[in-house]
Write a structure and sequence with these properties.
The chain has about 170 residues and is of the alpha/beta class. Helix content is about 30%, strand content about 30%. The relative contact order is 0.21.
């Protein structure tokens, strides 16, 4: 009985954190000078675009994977940036999403070129996520964004050796 209580105590006091990140694969780099021409802005950083796959839940609260574009400023001068989340509008095709590097991905690249880690969730049911997308379902779109930020934070600290500064900005 003492062993069972000790095991239960250890289990309940351990810092158990869910793993959200499944994978994050490099897609491309874009120099700031190109972003400046494409956006007519003055952006400081070159950017690297990744396709992120992460764990989230569907409309019934069941585990599912989702994908999104994750874009980072490329610099040796700073390792701490805020996070910007861009929630895209309606996509009629499963592949017409930020992680497929569409024209809309440029929005996240512009944020990143300005000094943000940019998260652009595809949402459940589109991109790499199985099934159908539940259009106009605010909760699943919010959950997709929140869980992508969690996965991004794992990638930022574990793979990039950087940190976010704790600020999260939402747009879309």
């Amino acid at each position: 009985m003492k062993k069972l209580l000790a095991a239960l105590f250890l289990f309940t006091t351990m810092n158990l954190s869910a793993q959200y990140l499944v994978s994050c694969n490099y897609v491309s780099s874009t120099p700031a000078v190109i972003l400046n021409v494409l956006t007519d802005l003055t952006l400081e950083y070159n950017v690297e675009t990744y396709k992120m796959i992460y764990n989230t839940v569907d409309v019934n609260g069941q585990p599912i994977i989702a994908s999104g574009a994750f874009i980072i400023p490329s610099t040796n001068n700073c390792d701490e940036f805020p996070i910007a989340v861009y929630s895209h509008g309606t996509s009629l095709k499963k592949t017409d999403v930020p992680s497929s590097v569409t024209q809309e991905t440029l929005i996240g690249q512009a944020f990143s070129g300005g000094g943000y880690f940019a998260c652009m969730p595809d949402y459940i049911g589109i991109g790499e996520s199985p099934g159908l997308h539940p259009y106009i379902h605010a909760e699943s779109e919010a959950t997709s964004a929140i869980d992508m930020v969690r996965a991004a934070r794992e990638f930022i600290s574990d793979s990039l050796g950087m940190i976010d500064n704790g600020e999260v900005f939402l747009t879309g």
